[in-house]
From TrEMBL:
UniProt GO molecular function: DNA binding; DNA strand exchange activity
InterPro entries per UniProt: DNA_bind_recomb_sf, DNA_bind_recombinase_dom, SSR_resolvase
Domain Recombinase: start-end pairs: 27-132
Descriptive protein name: Recombinase domain-containing protein
Keywords attached to this entry: Coiled coil
A Pfam family the protein falls into: Recombinase
Coiled coil: 214-241
Length: 326
């Protein structure tokens, strides 16, 4: 039985390395033809747009909501959720890559929906530490919650209600050291963002300061993923024990993480898509969905809400500090 199992594993690996698809159902974005697997024109465009949207700061739930509004369903006929959109976008097949046990092993025998660098960039975004996986809605409802910092304790601010005044406020729920009128803070921050993006040199924001060589990064990342896949194959064929496999994978993964982060950074310019060189930056910004607006603010500047210097009434702009990131 052990020999039969080993032969079956080797056969599975060989099929994977040959690029043969292992799909019980043709995935979303593809269709089956008499000549093999081809792109589904409408669905492939939706998937391609979803990758671009993630890199621009759109949430998984926003994409799911948009797809459901269009009447699109999963291959099982279900409505889309943030979790199912994430599962789709994490699949290597969309980059034309065959995987085995979750790791890429070679080129697939089907067309890619997106380039590998786009796929790697989105994968880096979706696997960021602390990011939810889309199982429950975590969409923010306000511009600066989780983005702006408390000037007293340094934690991210949340939202609350000033019942007596009947208005929403930003409040630090850790130390309760700051409370500021939400609408006033939003107007101030949006004004700074719009003014910056309307400057003649705004196009320079699209230039990476580190100017990473994406092609070289992709090669290094592919080599490390190959090491991970090889370690798993060696274990499957009883060439190494679990301890050595895990050690090899851990070393390769540690080297892979910063490379994937750089690939992610190479796509940061997508956050400003539609804003740079817009005739009316303010109108263009207002037209963006909230998660895109939040991504733009977070990419451009750090916002800190300071404790009240006095107990006077009214909003004081100097109670909000900012520093430019770009």
């Amino acid at each position: 039985m052990d020999r039969k199992s080993a032969r079956q594993k080797r056969a599975a690996v060989q099929r994977a390395e040959a690029g043969v698809p292992n799909w019980n159902v043709v995935p979303f974005g593809y269709r089956k033809t008499s000549k093999g697997i081809a792109l589904h024109a409408k669905h492939a465009k939706m998937v391609r747009d979803a990758y671009a949207a993630i890199l621009a700061g759109t949430s998984l739930h926003a994409i799911a909501k948009q797809w459901n509004a269009k009447g699109a369903t999963t291959t099982r006929g279900n409505t889309w959720t943030g979790a199912t959109v994430r599962q789709l976008l994490m699949a290597y097949r969309n980059a034309g890559v065959r995987e085995y046990k979750g790791q890429p092993v070679g080129d697939g025998d089907w067309p890619a929906i997106v380039d590998r660098d786009v796929f790697d960039g989105v994968r880096a975004v979706l696997t960021e530490p602390g990011r939810r996986k889309g199982g429950t809605s975590s969409a923010r409802k306000h511009l600066l919650t989780g983005v702006a910092k408390c000037g007293k304790c340094g934690k991210a601010v949340g939202s609350g209600a000033a019942v007596a005044q009947g208005r929403r406020v930003y409040v630090c729920k850790r130390c309760f050291g700051v409370t500021r009128d939400m609408a006033a803070v939003d107007r101030l921050v949006v004004g700074m963002v719009v003014e910056r993006l309307a400057q003649p040199d705004a196009a320079e924001l699209l230039v990476s300061r580190d100017a990473p060589d994406v092609t070289e990064l992709r090669k290094r990342a592919a080599a490390l993923r190959a090491q991970i896949a090889q370690a798993e194959r060696d274990y499957d064929e009883d060439l190494i024990d679990a301890h050595r496999m895990n050690s090899k994978i851990a070393r390769a993964t540690a080297k892979l993480a910063p490379i994937e982060a750089q690939l992610h950074d190479s796509h940061r310019a997508r956050v400003f898509d539609g804003l740079i060189d817009a005739k009316d930056v303010g109108t263009a910004f207002d037209a963006l969905p909230l998660d895109r607006q939040r991504a733009v603010v977070d990419a451009l500047l750090t916002v800190t809400i300071l404790p009240a210097a006095n107990k006077g009434t009214g909003f004081h702009p100097d109670s909000v500090e900012h520093s430019w990131k770009l």
